[in-house]
User: Fold this.
Amino acid sequence: MRRVRLSWITAVLVALGVVFATAGCNSPVDNTDIAGVRQRVLAALKKAGYDSYDLRWLRQRDAEFTILAGDSDWLQGWVIVDALNKYPVGRTPMEPVRVTVGLSPKNELAIISNDPGAFCRMVAGNGEVTTAESAIAEAEIYLDYTANGMLWYQRVESVDDIKMHDSGDEQQIAAKERVIAEYSSEISPPHVVKDDFGWSFTMWTVRGDRHPYATPTGPPPTALPGGNLVRHEFTIAPDGTLQDEQTIEVEHLPTPVVLGI
Assistant:
């Protein structure tokens, strides 16, 4: 069992500093107006120096802007937006273009795609978490939209949720048998406990361990590409600061490895 600790503590975040790009708006904003939010996101991305090639495709009419959270108690005043163009016309090859961002009332921009640290810096001290439901909602968006967009990802609440296929690989067969035998009674929806430090609970994900076409930089892999079962022990402070301690419980599961949008 391999442990990876990702703890984001307020004092560390302050020491490192938080760098945002600002598009310069101090007036109250409507975080439910999708047209206005779209304009604000595009302007903030441009000001931040976001890849102009990708930005071109996000400006197309078919690009979809989805508000994931707006004026939530755990991120007060901010809006989190997922911008996606599945079929960018004129792009070669025609691959999806996607970015997920947080935007403050002053148009401070945090690009959280594939970047758990950016999410944690964004939420630290910016909220007031008062319910278990709010704590879970914050953790769900953190998990779902900061995961590596190139690899398989699932947030699961039971062993039956894990998408596993039949495999002839011995390691994958053993991993599948183990996860069914040992984790069927352990993987479950989050049970939230409130204490003086905030809200604590466990969530589970399955993540592809590597891209099937990646060229390894070290020794050749000893197993087929597959998925890892990951336990997330969350603590979310009353001010929204998020701490995620991850443990890789089972490796080499026979799951998909590439995520299709």
Observations:
- Residues 2-253 form one domain.
- Residues 4-27 have pLDDT under 50 and may be disordered.
- The chain has six helices and eleven strands.
